[in-house]
Write a structure and sequence with these properties.
four-stranded mixed beta sheet, seven-stranded mixed beta sheet, 14 helices, alpha+beta, disordered N terminus
């Protein structure tokens, strides 16, 4: 099974790199740059320069794909975009936002006002409110990539002078975390060079793309608002997975980022860093089901689950057990109070079943009520997804150990999606990429079937509006359990070579501090 999974991931990666050859609208190039070299005035100058010469890092990209952040399809190009395009805010690996282009953000209910710093694009022109509006439209229109659905909560937007005003569909006190979408110069997404090849949109990031007769690199943006990069970055064109593997094995690239680590290259020896993501794997619940309408049965299911086992054995430890509805590294909560245990809690599960009236353990190993009936549930999952298949097998086994019968309902992807959309399930396995403010509104409204007048939904709305504290949200969630969090996925940064300092990575920018790093 694991071997099949690794092969499947490799094929998926290859497809993501190769598909861009036909579907991308742009090929990346930029104006050539000429560096001036001063002549040495003494015999030892060459020898001295060789000693002091720094070795630049090498990253990979797909030349046939776009470097427009809203249309790039390959993971390599998506990872490079934060180097070329700054955003209003940027998150560190603890998911804390810091202002970049935004100088001030006022969040009042459903109105968000954003003032801008005196930023300049790489062509020397000023970043204006109209450029932000242009970028919002591009972001909301993205059909694939890292920013799809990121601004779904934005209902309308306008600009006045140097201020941008957003109207939200619903209040979100943590909305500043969502403002890390790239800002592009208006009207530059379909520019071409003299050869008719598309070039990247104009951005205000730390770097600009340089094409010197087919030798690609990232060079410092001379108009950058912050501290300018010390070192350039070399780029290798990698059209497919086999090329990537070869270049890694030959030490031709130094850093490789995967939005979700999949052990694509398990035989390669490398240092890795994990990156906190917002991808949550969860168990959806239909509370209108006879059994699941009873919250003690929902609690019994949650207590019976070993999240640590699912993380380790189904996701190869490339995830974190979801001990709360927030990733434990998420600084939305100053001090985390775990509301779940990583391991199964059989006694608590048994107590919850007893409170629901299921007190007697039958001969088949399932707890029965006074009528002699035991709980029987159907677990819907996508059989085309190997991760879900392994997780389903694990969950069914764990539920049986807890005295709850769960039967597999394995569907192909199309049938699975239709069943979830129609609410034709009792419990189901799913994954959602939450936005970066960890707003659960969409999941609660469309992904689970709640009882009328759900108490948690009311508390959660008040939290987003700023009228209750996070502790009340967590207490209410644990009591109501509208769904069961299982694991948060992790991304990985694979490092090849000795770096001058430790590299930092985040969901906003996989190469968070790369501008100050070179090879030793």
């Amino acid at each position: 099974m694991k071997r099949a999974l690794l092969i499947a991931f490799a094929l998926l990666f290859a497809f993501s790199c190769c598909a861009c050859k036909d579907e991308s609208e742009t090929k990346n190039s930029s104006s050539k740059s000429v560096s001036k070299v001063k002549k040495s005035e003494n015999k030892n100058a060459k020898k001295s320069s060789k000693k002091s010469k720094t070795k630049n890092l090498t990253l990979y990209f797909c030349y046939s794909d776009s470097l427009d952040p809203y249309s790039a399809q390959s993971s390599g190009n998506q990872s490079l975009c934060p180097l070329l395009f700054d955003s209003l805010t940027k998150l560190d690996n603890d998911l804390n936002p810091k202002n970049l282009i935004a100088s001030e953000i006022e969040n009042e209910g459903t109105t968000v006002r954003i003032s801008l710093n005196s930023y300049k694009f790489s062509d020397g022109t000023t970043v204006s409110a109209s450029d932000v509006i242009y970028s919002i439209e591009k972001c909301k229109g993205a059909k694939y990539g890292a920013y799809v659905h990121q601004l779904d909560n934005v209902k309308s937007y306008t600009s006045s002078g140097d201020e941008v005003v957003l109207t939200l569909d619903h209040a979100d006190k943590n909305f500043a975390r969502v403002l890390d979408f790239p800002i592009l110069k208006s009207g530059t997404t379909k520019k071409t060079n003299s050869d008719g090849k598309a070039i990247p949109p104009v951005g205000s990031g730390r770097y600009v793309l340089s094409d010197n007769k087919g030798k690609f690199s990232l060079k410092a943006n001379e108009y950058y608002f912050g501290k300018k990069p010390k070192y350039k970055i070399n780029l290798k064109n990698i059209p497919d997975y086999d090329s990537l593997e070869y270049l890694i094995r030959s030490n031709s690239i130094n850093v490789y980022y995967s939005g979700f680590a999949t052990k694509e290259m398990p035989t390669l020896k490398t240092k890795t860093k994990t990156v906190n993501l917002t991808n949550l794997v969860y168990l959806g619940i239909n509370q209108k089901n006879t059994f699941l309408g009873e919250k003690n049965i929902r609690k019994a299911i949650s207590y019976a689950i070993s999240r640590a086992d699912i993380s380790e054995n189904c996701y190869y430890s490339l995830s974190k057990a979801a001990l709360s509805i927030y990733n434990e590294s998420n600084k939305i909560i100053e001090k985390h109070n775990d509301i779940f245990n990583g391991s199964s809690e059989s006694e608590k599960s048994k107590d919850a079943l007893e409170k629901a009236g299921y007190k007697t353990l039958g001969s088949q190993g399932y707890y029965k009520n006074s009528s002699g009936d035991h709980i029987t549930l159907s677990l819907l999952y996508n059989k085309d997804n190997n991760l879900q298949s392994m997780s389903a097998t694990s969950l069914i086994k764990q539920m049986k150990s807890a005295g709850i019968e769960v039967k597999a309902d394995a569907r192909d992807e199309k049938s699975y999606k239709n069943a979830v959309k129609k609410g034709d399930y009792e419990i189901y396995l799913a994954e959602i990429r939450l936005n970066k403010s960890f707003d659960y509104t969409s999941l609660l409204n469309t992904k689970v079937k709640l009882k009328d007048k759900n108490k948690f939904l009311s508390v959660y709305k008040k939290y987003l509006q700023g009228s209750v504290e996070i502790e009340e949200v967590l207490t209410s969630f644990k009591d109501e359990l509208p769904f069961v969090p299982l694991v948060f996925k992790l991304g990985t940064l694979s490092i090849y070579g000795n770096f001058s300092k430790e590299i930092i990575s985040s969901i906003s920018d996989p190469y968070y501090n790369i501008e100050s790093i070179h090879l030793k």
